[in-house]
Design goal:
The structure is a homotetramer. Chain A is an alpha/beta fold. Chain A is built from eleven helices and 14 strands. The longest helix of chain A has 20 residues, at 328-347. The relative contact order of chain A is 0.15.
Chain lengths: 390, 390, 390, 390
């Protein structure tokens, strides 16, 4: 039987499983709420923690049958692939170090994948997963959630349609202040794993939030990074990974960019700001005030585009009227909605168009890995220029 | 079996039914998503429209069994009350004229009620429903959704704890611009019913959005209105109900207030602003930027409280970190979460505390009805002073 | 010889005198700096205080010859009128109670007048001064300084040209918090005289700052007030005059308005906000952020007009490039510049056009007096409707 | 005789002369108004243009005696030094290429100097001027006008007193959009000279506005730049000098910095933003909204300091009450006031304290020259690290 909830016109909900999202996790619950938002999905299986006991506890609290709770990703991938009613896709929400193994396991078993960013540590790993998904004809979504914001869509529409002319320079920042304190010395799980190289990988700040700048700019502009010089710093407190990062970039079209990411900027919450300056106009988007987009054309007043208004392009999704803020969950939900609608069509044997596939994919994930690796490499060389992908 | 989704630690989801929320409705889907948000509820029955055909269509799209779809509220209340697995509560999301009949029907059949605001047209109706709920020992929630915003909770905590001293004056506004055009002449359903006295009742603007000011101020301050003078206007376009309203108020403690509500204020989306000025400090809350609260104490700089930060009181609910905006849906979801957790306790036979019952109730609905009626009465008398409840 | 300073193309500076502006005054020094700003004027005479000793002290500090310092306004008007090199105009910057006597004395002696607002206490007094200025063919400027703001000029241009259609409703506020404390009990001169009816007149709050709302709206829209109901309150502290005021207005064209003025609104500095909503658009101007003007046309994004940009109308004066803020002094200086350029033309025997005379005049002052009197009268009658000018 | 105007308690006005400020200039008139603002100065001599005809015209319009108008800086310095009533100081407001010659000429003749920034082209030139001023015991002010903003003073007080702990990282930007068009091809004088290396020197963007970031950060923090890597770009239009610049910096104390300056950022007016992040707090200052300062301490809400309020330190100068904006002219005027008060004391033979000398001086000018040269040098080397002063 089909349960009723948020509700689009679906004949059946897609069953899915989750990796990560156990006790103390943050992003797992966000994924669950976002996946449920439009009533397209049903969580029926999981490996929520490295500790099976924790997985059982979380699974029970979510009402999941113990038969669908697994000790590790391999066992879960195998078990679900073997069931006639096995999950249609998996959401990987565990910390970074686990992404590659998990994604590979499910792709190999023919199960579609949604994976948190940053995708993996190594470029080769990302390329392998992309190739695997392609070979198996599977959907592979990398959760750059801000791409689900309607005003990001509007920004992309404006820039890609040429309304601001040729992009000349880009300024991006993502500033947080939460790691100005040594939260990892208390039992704050988010701080603990992000500052631990064995879990977070080669980078903390540029990997966790710098990569959001990278994707946001790429999403809006389509610009490819040619080379960059980066300075990653661990400042204020003794840590093994970067907490502050500055990057100068050169894109393949000759445009320039500056990115700054920080986790020690007191007073900043999640201040992702992307500003794109072109020959004929400019746009500015502030994630924390993300229902609005500033657009300025040459010799004209700045215009404040407000989500939900009739003057916006169809590109800007529109759940509720303007002035009723949509936020973090809704952006995730928009990506899930896009992904699950595409997956439904795919399962129904329909041909997927580019519009159907308009969610961040493995290539976006690969770009992120290249970016992070180049930043780390450049920083090791005292902020020398490093070409992407090398 | 229990389906897994958003997920708190629940042993079983509460089944509920819905009135309204059929094709073309706006608020019904918001209620469905909000009720589903924390995984506490399951929609299993409905009378989504005056047209049974529409109800069937909506029900089918939501995967609801035809046996649980009803032609009218009376049949539905009767049927659900008769089932062993009948709904535990009903959400009334239909236009205003229907609230009284629907709420009464379900309360009479012993079913708990969540009802959209404004509650009903007449003070006597509101009092009757409150008495009925009390007599039947039923929970009765009136959906003033902004009360679910964490920063509203913080504002209430600050004001009620005396931090800003005695409240001296209050300024409230709710400005929209959408009815600056005759949308009701196209087939915009929201505009059509709100401008039609047979559906909306004695007021449009002061009833629909003015009542939000009234409740927000009441929620934060606890002030009771003693008397008011109001000017309701129908301006710009030929209509039968008000689209612009100005109110001077006197509260029982002697404080004064000014409210302004408009639906013809071009450039305004849903600009609900409440400002409370006391002897020792002041707070200001802007719904459209609702993750923040401005707090100023005498001779000190204005402080910007940002949702999700550690310096906030426990009163401010905290789903996600600061800087990741929560919005419209989350406010509704917070009210539903509060209501359903209370209902679960009640069903489990536990005693409900004031903290459990911290959602807008029938009394809040009654206050709204009194306010609207007094405004209409005062306006008929050329904005003379009218005492509340007379 | 002609001294060089700020410098427009003037052959000679206009000599002027000042009433008020002695020790402890605030606005006198603002007038002096503003009058000097464009190098058009030269202060050569004064009666800066009721105490001649204070006048001598201030005069000496300003380098004014003792022969030009007077004991009272009558002696000064007489003496200056008698000198071949007597002052060309006088600036009256003393507290309210002194305006009528001073303005009358100088007008009677054929000396042009700039007078602070509110002009006088009584309507008849204002009418008398206007008639006197007319009979004597003298320029008579009432210093509503905000009218000198370039973006106010732009606002007027937009509204008067019909770009926002017919004005439907107006919302104005002027909120301050400085009188939330009993500053008058210390030796704060500004607080002392403003809360003293013998000096400030029949009103404090509505007279001092409410009148700025009145003039700003009038300046931008040209709307005449037909009737109003007002509630003036003395709240928070024991005082003889109002510190908080709410007004509902009806303009002669049928448009409606709401004004709120307060001096006890903690957290507010000089928050003058004027919002004009028409059938085709709306404008909003925030004095504290006064280099910008928000303009919204139906179904279009809000535009942020920024002072100094090329897309503005010629109406917006333009001293310095956009993004370099002009503020309080510059607004005063713009009024003085307009007034003194007109006066120069007049002295040179040229005919003055309406454009030359584009500064607030006696009629603007009279409107203010009518407004204040009506507010006080209405408030005495428990906020009943009172027609203007009665 | 002493003329009366804006007026502090001065016995005599300082007479001064001006270089630059002829027809079509922008900054010359700003200097004149700022110097006149507090009534301390009197412009009596000038060489306003390379064209003597233009100098005569400007001089006449300003009422300056022809005897005090000179054909070039050498003749003027010589003539003024020879007069018993010669100017006490000179203000150099001409384009960059002229600064060195002019400053040298007046210093050599024993005349105090105020000079626009950037001071000169070469480090050696700056050092020579500083040494010359020292040898002659002359005051030497370099007009970094933003240092006159009260909230910059407050920022300096907060940072230098250690309230935000050790500075960890600094983010500065100065974004303009005016050169997104080829204004230099019309007869826009500001654009023409700034894009011409023979007049502007080795840099346009980093020299003109990047140097403001450099000084602002230095002024607030006292940090000295150790090394930097810079990318100067000429983008969008064919030009000889940079219009967009990105700089990574390392300060001597180990802190890091990022600066971005642009003249092609459409939608930006004069967006100078400086953000200082320390171990215990952070400050942010936006020049365009410069009456406010954002201050955040660890685990506390962001506070909005508003100029003119009692909670500010004495460091924040306070002309007018909070909420009445001070702007561009007032910042210049504050520097002039500081400089002329010091000069008066010096002329009176009093000892000058550090507080007296609290205006940007030759050393500040030298730091700017070093910064600009290092940026240009680094950019030539593909943004390699370059140490300052080499």
């Amino acid at each position: 039987m089909i349960e009723a909830s948020g509700g689009n016109l679906l004949q059946a909900k897609l069953s899915y499983g989750m990796i990560g999202g156990g006790p103390g996790s943050f992003i797992g619950d966000v994924h669950r709420k976002a996946a449920a938002f439009d009533g397209n999905c049903m969580l029926v299986a999981g490996c929520f923690s490295n500790s099976y006991e924790n997985t059982l506890q979380t699974g029970q609290s979510l009402g999941i049958s113990e038969a669908r709770l697994s000790e590790n990703v391999y066992m879960m991938a195998h078990a679900e692939a073997a069931r006639p009613d096995g999950i249609k896709f998996v959401s990987i929400t565990s910390p970074n170090y686990n992404h590659y193994d998990a994604a590979k396991a499910f792709l190999e078993h023919g199960i579609h994948v949604v994976c948190e960013k940053p995708l993996v540590f190594e470029i080769a790993q990302a390329e392998e997963l992309i190739a695997l998904a392609k070979a198996k004809d599977l959907l592979f979504c990398v959760m750059y959630s801000y791409s689900g914001s309607p005003m990001m869509r509007e920004a992309r529409e404006i820039v890609r349609s040429g309304k601001i002319g040729t992009v000349l320079t880009v300024v991006g920042e993502y500033a947080q202040g939460w790691l100005a304190q040594a939260l990892e010395k208390s039992d704050q799980k988010q701080a603990s794993w992000r500052t631990d190289p064995s879990i977070a990988g080669i980078s903390n700040c540029i990997g966790d939030i710098g990569s959001h700048i990278e994707h946001t700019v790429s999403f809006i502009t389509g610009l490819k990074i040619k080379r960059l010089c980066a300075r990653l710093e661990t400042i204020g407190l003794d840590r093994l990974l970067d907490t502050n990062a500055s990057v100068l970039l050169e894109y393949e079209n000759g445009a320039s960019g500056n990115y700054w990411a920080s986790q020690i900027a007191i007073g900043c919450d999640n201040r992702l700001v992307v500003r794109i300056y072109g020959t004929k106009g400019a746009i500015e988007w502030y994630q924390e005030d993300g229902n609005y987009l500033k657009v300025t054309y040459l010799d004209q007043p700045t215009q404040i585009f407000s989500r939900g208004n009739g003057y916006l392009s169809p590109a800007a999704a529109n759940r509720i009227p303007s002035g009723h803020p949509e936020g973090y969950y809704e952006a995730f939900a928009n990506v899930y909605n896009q992904f699950t609608l595409a997956l439904n069509k795919k399962i129904a044997g329909q041909t997927l168009t580019a519009a159907d596939l308009d969610f961040p994919d493995g290539d976006a994930g690969l770009d992120g890995v290249k970016f992070i690796n180049a930043c780390v490499e450049s920083s090791k060389q005292d902020a020398s220029w490093v070409h992407l992908g090398l």
